Amino acid sequence: GETVSPQPGPENEMSQDIANIYTMLKKISDDMGGIEDIRRTTNSVESKLSALIAQIDDDEKHVEFLEETENERQRNPPASKCELDQLKDKVEDMENRNRRNNLCVIGVSEGKEGGNMMRYMGDLISTVFDTS
User: Fold this and answer.
1) Per the domain annotation, does 69 fall within a domain?
2) Which among 70, 74, 92, 120 has most CB atoms closer than 10 A?
């Protein structure tokens, strides 16, 4: 039982070189698989980042709209309920004051004046007071 060890020589060195190259290629292949995983993860992160950027853009537009609306409201504030009530009271008072200037002639049917109220009233007063 004598063991024969391989002789150092060109064939043995070439065989060792091929084994080393194979080992390096296997490591490179494994590393490439890891790089592909990193590439997929990077693509996923980029996709999510793009979605976040789009959402932020939408949010910025919404905030800008709200700020413009608030600025407009401050420049031209809406009337309060109290102010509206005061305006309604003023309108009602003006309508009532306007009615006070109207003459009410008792005994004359409504619509009797035809189309010319001034002429009818002039004729009526002339007749009543006999100013002919």
Assistant:
1) yes
2) 120
User: Within 10 Å of residue 132's Cβ, how many Cβ atoms?
Assistant: 5
State which residues form the domain around 13: 9-78
pLDDT grade for 121, boundaries at 50, 70 and 90: confident
Q: Residue range 91-106: average pLDDT?
A: 80
Alpha carbon distance 48, 119 (integer Å): 85
Tell me the three-class secondary structure of 46-102, residue by residue: HHHHHHHHHHHHHHHHHHHHHHHHHHHHHHCCCCCHHHHHHHHHHHHHHHHHHHHCC
pLDDT tier for residue 5 given thresholds of 50, 70 and 90: low
Give yes or no for residue 2 having a pLDDT over 70. Answer: no
In a domain, 93, yes or no: no
Domain count, the chain: 1
Predicted TM-score of the model (pTM): 0.41
Residue 101 has pLDDT above 70, yes or no: no
Distances, alpha carbon 67 to alpha carbons 15, 18, 57, 60, 72, in Å: 76, 71, 15, 10, 9
